[in-house]
Design a protein that fits this description.
- The protein has helices spanning about 20-30, 80-90, 100-115, 120-125, 135-150; strands at about 1-5, 10-15, 50, 55, 70.
- By secondary structure, it is α+β, with helices and mostly antiparallel strands.
- A five-stranded mixed beta sheet has the order 2-1-5-3-4, covered by helices on one side.
- Helix 2 (about 80-90) packs across helix 5.
- The relative contact order is 0.16.
Amino acid sequence: MTVDITINGQLHQLDIEPDTPLLWVLRDELGMTGTKYGCGVAQCGACTVLVDGQATRSCVTPVEAVAGSQIMTIEAVTQDPVGQKVVEAWVSQQVAQCGYCQSGQVMAATALLKQTPKPSDEDITAAMINLCRCGTYNAIAAAVRQAAQA
């Protein structure tokens, strides 16, 4: 089956099974390896991308469910003004340690700030639920606050 999806502003026509998870389309079909596989059951958030501006777990999202949607991955996040501010704050706050969860964290923070430009601490806590093996939650929250003020 042919599925048309738009990723980072580019239309892709893929001959693929419609129930293929978006994560595997990104990584295996399109070579976009910035989005990570973590748990495969939508719990950790390493696979987070934006679908029409919403943080979405790509490991459990069938590609047919996002046909016609605008998908943004970590590869293009700095092309978005909010995403650029998030990345700059991430670097400034030296958030990354092992780095494995960072693409998903950056995408979740970008989605939050696009929906709530001046989030409260409670908003940040509620939105930033991706797992971090290194425990950098204080740095993550600080980076989100900094990006919101930029």
